[in-house]
Each structure stands twice: as C-alpha cells, then as structure tokens.
Amino acid sequence: MVDLIYFSWIRERIGKSGESIETSATTVLELIEELKKKDIRYSEVFSDLGSFRVAINQELADFDASIVEATEIAFFPPMTGG
Amino acid sequence: MVDLIYFSWIRERIGKSGESIETSATTVLELIEELKKKDIRYSEVFSDLGSFRVAINQELADFDASIVEATEIAFFPPMTGG
Amino acid sequence: MRISVQNEFFDFSTEIKNFSATLENIGALVTFTGIVRGQKSQTLDYMVIEHYPGMTEKQIHLIVEEAFKRWKISDALVIHRYGKLDPGEPIMMVATAAEHRIEAFEAAEYLMDYLKSKAPFWKKEVLNGEENWVESASEDETALSRWQ
Amino acid sequence: MRISVQNEFFDFSTEIKNFSATLENIGALVTFTGIVRGQKSQTLDYMVIEHYPGMTEKQIHLIVEEAFKRWKISDALVIHRYGKLDPGEPIMMVATAAEHRIEAFEAAEYLMDYLKSKAPFWKKEVLNGEENWVESASEDETALSRWQ
Lengths: 82, 82, 148, 148
Fold this sequence. Notes:
Number of strands of chain C: 8
Radius of gyration of chain A: 12 Å
Strand content of chain C: 35-45%
CATH class of chain A: Alpha Beta
Mean pLDDT of chain C: 95
Oligomer: heterotetramer
Distance between the termini of chain C: 23 Å
Number of domains of chain A: 1
Distance between the termini of chain A: 34 Å
Shape of chain A: globular
Helix content of chain A: 25-40%
Structural class of chain C: alpha+beta
Largest interface: C-D, 29 and 29 residues
Shape of chain C: globular
Order of helices and strands of chain A: EHEHHEEE
Mean pLDDT of chain A: 97
Order of helices and strands of chain C: EHEEHEEEHEEH
Structural class of chain A: alpha+beta
CATH topology of chain A: Ubiquitin-like (UB roll)
CATH superfamily of chain A: Beta-grasp domain
Number of helices of chain C: 4
Helix content of chain C: 25-40%
C-alpha cells in the first residue's frame, strides 16, 4: 500500500486530496501510466508530464525514480511559494 | 576667493579643516600644483593623485575639471560609507 | 536558524527586531518581506496558500542549510504563511545576518529564489469572486540557474 | 522617498515599520542594515564617521533618484549616521519597496553599492586605543561596474 497525495488543481480535478492504493509499479512513470488507466480525470491530469511535479516520501523526485521504498507519493503543480 | 575643505586624513595631515585662498589656477590639477608649493604637508598629501578625490561646489569632479566657477572645493580620500 | 510555517499573521518589524536581538558581531542584516498585492490587472479579493505539511518544513530546512554551506552567514530566518491572506498582509519573510553585505544579500536572494520554486506552496488568487491558481513563472525556475 | 543623514541612533525595526506603513499595493520589501562590528582582527573600541554636510544629502538624493529611474520601485528609504558609534549600533539602512522582488533587491543593492563608494562618508576605527581611517576596499569600487 502506498499513500498518494494531490495538491492544488490536481487535487481539485481528481476530486480528492489523496488515496491509498495497491500498485505493482516500480517507478513514478509506471505509476502514472497505471493511474491514467483508472479514469478520465486521471488521464487528463497526468497527460502532460511538464505540468506537474512529484515527491516521494516528501522529497522531490524525478519521474524515473524508483517507488519501491515509497510510502507516500505526492503529485502537484510547479510550486509558487515566496 | 575659494573655500577649500579637507576631510579625513587629509584634514588631519594638513592640520586644518579648510581655508579660503586666492588662486589663479583654472583647473583642479593647477590648484593642486599650487597647493603643493605651499609647504611640505601639502606636497605630501597631494603627491599621489590616486589616493584622493575632489568635489567642486559639492559635486564629484575630475582633476582636469575647471574651477573657474568654483566657490567650494573639497579634497578627501575615497569614500567609505555604507 | 528559525523556520516557521504558519497560518497566523506576523508583524515583520517585530520579527526583524527579535531576529536581530540574538545576533552578535554582525555587520550586515538583510530582510525580504513578501506582501499580498491588492491591485494587479484586477482587484484581488484574497489569496489562499496551500502547502504540503511535513514536506514544507523539511524542504525549507534543506534550502536554509544549503545557504549556510554556500555563504558565511551568522543566522537566517524564514517565515512562510499558508491559508487565507488578505491584500496587504505579509505572505512570508526571510532575514539573513552576516559580517559582510555581499554574503547577506546573496544568501537572502538565494533563499527567495529557492522558496519560490522548491518549497511546496501553491497560491490561489480570488479575483472578483473567481478562483485562479497562480501559475509558476518560467523566470522563477530560470532564476535558480544563477546559483548552479 | 526619505533620506536622513543623522548623528542620532535609530531603531531599524521601528524605521521599517514606519516605512512600510505608508506603502500601498507593494509585493516586495527589502531592507539592509549596516551595523558596527565589535570584533574584527582586533577589538573595536568605537567608530567615528565623518561626512561632508550639504554634499552628503545632495549626493544621496542623486543616488536614490537614479535608482527610481532604473527600477520600478514604489518607495525608498536611506538613513545614514555620522559621529561616534559603538559596536553593535546601526550605522545605516536602506529600504526599498516594489511590486516585484527582483526590483526591490536590485535597487537595494544598487543603493548600497553607491552609498559605499559615492556618498561622502569616511570611517575611522579606534582599535585598542589606536585610530585608523578605514581604507576603501577596491572591491567596493569594482562593485559599481555591474551597474554600468
């Protein structure tokens, strides 16, 4: 089981702030492909890899990073702090 | 008559904060040459043109600037504000 | 080093006073305060800032620690708010103290550049009743390149 | 715009508060405060700052006006002291307010660089009872080249 967390417009478009899922994906990219098959909201949100960022266990990660040790994976748009 | 004003170590080495003089010099450089002839304190202070700066009527000026309109000429080391 | 991620309003002049009270033998103090602008192309009703609790604090710590490695600074402060913010309210501030001005300025700008693009905050503006997520400016990500 | 050349002590957090109280629709506020360092290679007894009354104010005005021409800033503050200053006391401060952070930072750094080398102040340090005029650092004059 891994916890997925969504922020900003990703949260709004998916319609929830997070969910726990079972996955056999070993990288972020594989997980994204799996999510896109779930339903059209996911396939739309994750259609453009340039439009969002990912964090694994609260650390920024690349799309090809391993998620084998992941307990928490977050998806969010580019940050707008400051 | 023109007022000369000295600051920082120039004031200390000349031994006064200023003086009013009569001069026939038309540029800063000519004035410096005139002052250097006055006495050794002046010739020592003004020996190195790189070691001091000049302002004419309270505006920074070059050594070749005209002093014909000058009422106040100040000599001082490079500034150390801030 | 003090880092605070908070919903509460803060008074930046008081924060600057408190920050400076603990400093010894510094020659330079730089502060930056970010404030909610009420007039852009339209009138802003208010702003809402969302963040990633847990990760936010960790990420700011990493950014501040990197600033300490890169510059000889004596101390640093970062305050960043989340939640609903009205026009004129402070959003965030950084303060840096150092012996010399260049270090204090550069460290403060570094902190700002990284907080903009690498700390998990997302701003939503409500303009004339309409909600808009603020898009990240491409110049904010390119601003990072000067530190690399 | 407020410029003050003064002998009196100032509390920079109060000055920042007063400066910011008059600002409208700004997004960024940058402050720099310079402080007398008590420990350099030796212990500083105190510092004395000499200035050129009349020219100092004019020269700072020119520098601040140039900053207004170069950057879109809403307001600026410069306070610079002269006379005897003890370790830990504020020497001077600048504050800049703008819609955006880059303008506020750059204008503040510009003001600092020019105040260092183009405002008629001269610092004398008294170290273990011995007086020394502070020499201008060559990097201070070269710092100006980035604005030219």
